[in-house]
Here is the input.
Amino acid sequence: MTQILDGKLLAQTMQGEIAAQVAELTETLGIRPGLAAVLVGDNPASQVYVRNKRKACDQAGIQSWLHQLPADTTQPDLLHLIAQLNTDPQVSGILVQLPLPIGIDESAIIDAVAPLKDVDGFGPQSLGLLTAGTPRFLPCTPFGVQQILVRNNIRVEGQHVVIVGRSNIVGKPLALLLMQKGEGGNATVTVCHSKTPDIAALTKQADIVVVAIGQARFLKKDMIRPGAVVVDVGINRTPDGKLVGDVDFDGVKEIASAITPVPGGIGPMTITMLLHNTLRAAILQHAV
Ligand code: NAP
Here is the structure.
């Protein structure tokens, strides 16, 4: 029978573990981790994401602040806010919700976040450390993908993982993470993208397929081999308002050995790893 990899349930368990660690940190050292969320403009999806992240912080005992700025905020204004948050001792982590409005250079904003507060793991220092095999903050979605596999006892070591999508926030860092030496790594990784000629020929060879492209129900049953593990990162809204992933869940589930659902798969894991990183940031800053 196909195993449904329940990200919602695992996220609850892991968030409970994080809450216990936060309580201990506060009790023993008087440190309360805090996350500053920066939201520019009125993108409805971004508003929901930020609300869910702050709710999870609250439940784990992590303080959170929302800096909501209008869509016509200038890049210097945003950089000024980031500079303030960088030096605020109460702020352990800074989350700048993407995408930012047109006219603001996202990479300039990401680069401006202090490396020890880069809890999204998107900054050059975080990515450089991951590439060097000595990670500090792992990007939350790839980290969530790895954890859902590891915590469900799905072997990654020695497996052929095919990742569809090469974005800086999902596909690329996930490849680095799963090919690292050590637990949860040691995979052989292939990365596909929009210029890959025959994606199905590659996904059919995979022990584990991860899809992160933002194309509703892209991966079909005939694109995997029976018994493969399938991880769906995509979040897409169909014309009738339904939330679906990048995998044709009903078809693929018939032959996969394990599969993540959408919703309730990688989404809640991403939030959990943000909490993990914020706790870690508070500990690291205390040690400096
Ligand atoms: P992105 O920045 O738009 O990147 C999409 C990637 O997919 C690109 O590398 C692109 O290739 C590739 N691609 C697009 N269409 C393709 C096709 N038909 N065949 C092969 N490759 C294709 O997207 P992202 O930010 O990585 O997000 C991907 C999906 O994951 C979205 O649905 C997003 O909402 C979701 N997401 C979910 C979470 C979560 O917490 N669950 C977090 C982040 C993102 P090129 O590089 O060649 O253009």
User: Anything to note?
Assistant: The radius of gyration is 19 Å. Residues 141, 164-167, 169-171, 192-195, 199, 212-215, 233-236, 266-267, 270 surround NAP (CB under 6 Å). The first strand starts at residue 3 and ends at 4. The mean pLDDT is 97.
